[in-house]
Amino acid sequence: MSLLDNVWVVLVLKLGVAVVVLFAVALVVMFAELKVSAHMQHRVGPYFAGGRWGWAQVFAEALKFLQKEDLVPREADGPVFRLAPMVSLLGTFAVIVIIPLSPVLVAGDLDVGIFYALAAGSVSTIALLMAGWSSGSKYSLIGGLRAGAQLIAYELPLVLAVVGVVIQAGTMSMVGITEAQAQPLFHIGSVGISLPYALQGQIIGFVIFMMAALAELVRTPFDMPVAESELVMGYLTEYSGIRFTMFLLGEYAGMLAMSAIASVLFLGGYHFWGLNADWFGPFVLLGKALILVFVMIWFRWTWPRLREDQLQSLAWRWLVPLALANIAVTATLKVVL
Amino acid sequence: MTTPADRHLLAVHRSEVAVSVELQTPEMTLNIGPQHPSTHGVLRLVARISGERVESVQPVMGYMHRGYEKLAEVRTYAQITALVNRIDWVSGFANEVPFIIAAERLMGVEAPERAQYIRLVLTEMYRIANHLIFLCAFPAELGAPTPLMYALRERERVLDLVEGLTGGRFHPNFNRIGGVKPAAGGGAKQKTRSQDLPKGFIEGTRRAMAAVRRVCDDLEGLVLGNEIVQQRAVGVGVLPAEVAIEYAMSGPNLRASGVAFDLRKVEDYLPYHRFDFDVVTMPNGDAYDRCRVRLEEIRQSTRIIEQALDSLPAGPLQAKVPRVIKVPKGECYVRAENPKGEMGYHIVSGGGRRPYRVKIRSTSFCNLAVLPWLLEGALIPDIIAILGSLDYVLGDVDR
Amino acid sequence: MDGLPPEAPPTEEPPSRAAHWAAVAGATGWTDAFRTAKVRVPRERWVEAHRALKEHLPFFAWLSAIDWTNEVAVGDPVEGDPVEERFEVLSRLSDVSAGEAVIVSTDLPRDDLNLASLTGVYTAANWHEREASDMFGICFEGHPNPVRIYLPDGFEGHPLRKSFPLLAREVKPWPGAVEVAPLPAAEAAPGEAKEGGA
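ok -> structure tokens follow
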């Protein structure tokens, strides 16, 4: 009877590995952002740290942030100010439980997989409001309130876009959704061809999900709360050092988590035609997730930011009705076909 | 005329539904600046805001007041030329031109043809540099950091050319009473020879102008064609023509409101009448049109530079002036079309080596007078867009 | 104008426009020297003259003042005959079509620096009058917001008056005023000439 038969030990191990993998890849995402944005702007990006490639820049920055002074402004509400970054990370941690790297490599394949992820992930809304309110600065306050309004507004399209997929797959479990997409849709000779849901009629849902995910992550073009040219970092103005790193890491890990969820729901997850899911699954999933991360980075460095009222009108007047229409059409077709 | 509140309601909140419950919320006083990424320097706006809407704005300036007019009373004319580069530091050479022409008029000296053409070429190059900086800063304030890099790359080409000619990128200090500075290291005899432009300057300028035109096309697609920029800038900060004239706006801000007034066509401080270029106006007077005017003016400036270099006359670079400059008594005001608007110097000379009084009519100080009117009822992000579209620098505002 | 035949004729200034504007404004005199048209109005007619000129010249370029005095704390006094000691307030008006312009000036006695404000006629005069009152101490009656515009609160004095010294120079003499000994073979006098030459 080995240690691995104990359920709790296995759970802790799985969570530990998941967290480490997530944050390792989040560092890669951070580096990708630096280099990709640089090359898009005719620059080179980090150059000196780590040969002539700059790969050590991310570690250098992490170390730099770790050794900074621990500043809490005098006007700030101390306990809330200190707690906000941890709550934000909590929201991101909670989501990685259900991301399936392969049919067996998943921290916990819950039956209510995606429902749990969306619910737990929205804890970070509170974190941003806490950060904005407790900083004791007017700029942070404006940023925090903008963040609250934005995140609440974009929760709805996020959830509604997922409902279409759940209807089509018939299950909320992430592994189940992936397996449903892996079922062959039609046959060419003796070869079965399966299509990811993005190509099986959920393209609108995919677009809505990506936009809502960008807004949930407070990234351009939805980064009004952190509008650097207006609010000097918004709700993050008063944060420095390791607390700022926690927010930053949460943002990049969140990017990766949201991209991974999107690739499971809409792009087929760890399944790829002709590849054995047990061996190649993790690489396939990470590959799809990183492609979506690249697209997010691309959007950030190309477009300016939407104004707050334009952002809200986009969510309430366009995305929500479209998502509802999507659900109606999907449900009808599911019954009919 | 619609009130500012009506105007902004029309432009911004087409879909706003009237709230049935009136919430009494207190107003907040927010200091935008003096340290702020988007105020183009140390401008302080004391804004009373209610939520995201600004009720009133009061600009507070003077954080950068350097006392130019007092300094000008204790400096000789050559020294003042070096100083006034720094008023509007983005368009360095263009600050010197009206000053030196006013001093020349008082002395009765006319700069030779070649010097006038070189002054014209340099002024237009700095106009290109200034408008490219605008195209960096305006999208960056809206949230798009990439056009900054593209525009600055081409600006480097222009500044390298200027550096090759004058020795300075931002503060060339190239004008002298009676002309421009002779090539460095030449000595007294150099003034009569016409080998004064650096080798490769003319070809380099032609290549640079082609590159600038290419980046104008790029930026037109990247910035002006972007739907989000259009949503943020069209209909924002609308300045009607009569308000613009009432508040003495000048330059591209005035022309974007539809008033076709360009001092290069009206005044003859430099030989602009010999070249073929258009006065760019746009009808609406919003932030988007101000951006379009400046982009189009870059193209017109490239035209002017190419025509000037094609017909560059030979001759000396500086007229004969005494070694110690003493300007006779009199008063003279000369104004010029600087990249940001009308800039002028009123020199009151008491007959000595130093002027008795110099009044500097700086563009941005006059352009910002419209801020309380323009920003009333705007949203906070719109403030940033409007400030960015007015294109001012604090050195110009505070002198 | 240039000595070379121009390809396209420049905008020529009509002769003696200053006389025309003087008549419009009801001025007591005009000058047109160095291509700068200037009309003089008495102090009581300051606002009236501007009101008369506004319909032709709607653009208010600037307003400022000159401190005419014979004893200056910094800089050089006027050479030649002593000047009449007064404050002269200037404003420049122009149009936005043909390039017409005129400078309107009035004199204030040194012990009575009050002048009616132009903000009722030209809105753009607001900040210029604040600057003139900040720098010279002229009081503009009827100005809606007569607070200092450039100098910090609590600043004492009016810097652009000729009696106001350059404080930095009081503390430490300006290093550029050092006389340099002439080189043995130099052709011109250094020091002084170095300041005024190219």
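Chain C has one domain: 17-168.
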